[in-house]
Amino acid sequence: MIAACLPFNKAEASPKMRAPAIAANVDTALLGVVVFLLGIGLVMVASSSVSIAEKQMANPFHYLQRQLVFVIAGLIAAAVTVNIPVKIWEKMGLMLVIVSYALLILVLIPGIGKTVNGSTRWIPLGLINLQASEVVKLLMIIYMGGYLVRRGESVRASFRGFCVPMGLLAVTALLLLLEPDFGATVVIMITCMGMLFLAGARLWQFAMLSGMALIAMSILAVTSPYRLQRLTAFLNPWEDPFNSGFQLTQSLIAIGSGDWFGAGLGNSVQKLFYLPEAHTDFLFAVYAEEMGLVGVALLIAIYGFVVIRAMRIGAVSEADGRTAGGYLSYGIAIWIGMQAFINMGVNMGVLPTKGLTLPLMSYGGSSLIIMCAALGILMRVDYENRSANILATRVEHSAGKGRKNKAHRTE
Fold this sequence. Notes:
Layout: H1 28-57, H2 62-81, H3 86-91, H4 93-106, E1 114-116, E2 119-124, E3 129-131, H5 132-157, H6 159-177, H7 182-198, H8 203-223, H9 225-233, H10 246-257, H11 283-319, H12 323-348, H13 365-410
Antiparallel strand pairs: 1-2, 2-3
């Protein structure tokens, strides 16, 4: 569906120099891997939610059906974003920051924001609850990409150029922490700081900022019993396995039960009302139990492929002078890699519990649709890279052919 919607601007080249068939401009390996992740995600949502869906909704396929709708919506979102030139995203930065702030403020207004498990992160929209932080992740990456194109020299040469985007990110982080959504705050900050680093910001600026962030997070953790408990419970979940450590102990039991090759698809025991949020934040634990260490290694390799491919697309775009596409690709790569790493780390007990989904796999409309939209942008960057390369090759070939004809006529 994404490939079928990839555009080609006929005004970009003469009839003899237009790009060939659309399929030639698509990274089929990346597209195939993304579709595979969506497919295995549907299978795992069905497997992990069948029991709870039957109990809560009297329909064992309730969450699968909704996830399928989300996948279709995500593919439509990708088909839209893949048709939008990168130049347009580059010019929309400030407006997208305003939209981000509006969403984060709107979700905090009583009567509008929806509270679940003590966190107010969602805006009810009828068929779907919009998680504002998921939208903000993508919008801030787009803003940062455009800012680095416009003010890249300032970022590299002056402290002020570095502080301006970090100030906007600080406001975003503050609004997210009021929900509270600590996980999204970490992902957005690390992603945008990674983009600044790749743009050439100085190391001492990062060292100073990291120190300030560490102090701020320490203060937040100490002054909030809820956050302190979440941050420390993972260190020894077996100390209180039926209260603060319950979710993590059940996740560790699931992962440990997977052994080398897993219990088999659909044979997880922990999903049978033992492991809370088995189809959302802890989908990875059920996957590990059913697919084993081999399946986990394969999944990590797949996410690694997506991240490396996205970084490569960014490097090609930047090298060819399309820096906006390069920075967008870098941001999307860091986002996907960081969120997958944190989700898996939480499931395995090496990181504190965060409310972050496994990209393209966990149940959830906002996360899935926005991630698909981001991948549509990545595919657009790659499409522009390939189109420019094809056109340059044809121009060079045409010029060479012209020189040969001229030499022949001279003779």
